[in-house]
Amino acid sequence: MGIELRDFEAPTQDNAIANFRFVTPDYWRAMEIPHQQGRLVEDGDRNRPVAVVSSRTARHLWPNENPIGSHVQGIGPSKPVLEVVGVVGEVLAGPLDQSWAMMVYEPYALTSPVAMSFTLRSVGTQPLHVCGALIDRSRNGAADGPHHE
User: For 108, which of 22, 29, 30, 119 could close a Cys bridge (C-beta 3.0–4.6 Å)?
Assistant: First the structure.
């Protein structure tokens, strides 16, 4: 997905690619992605157009500037303008031989995805038992939205 800067000159084609992720507030904890600046997505952001960006995205799009309060927008007619509220560490989002992708995270509640994946971290229990509970939960009522505990 492309990215459009709202507060600065538009980027060139070779630096305008970002990976957008739609997340719930516990995503970074589950993925063990370190929080670096500002704040993370919160439950209260369900209807707010906010974003958290990776440190690479912040360095690339706003070099030598504080990205908090800046704005990004995915390319497309219905993509909202998102206010950057936080910065997090890097996560490899592709093959190991590729460079780190620019990442933009926005609240899951702002979108209507046609597909989704789950991030689950199990502590002190057998992972297969947790997977069974997750499968049961998804079959019995997960249609009302994301579940994070």
Answer: 22
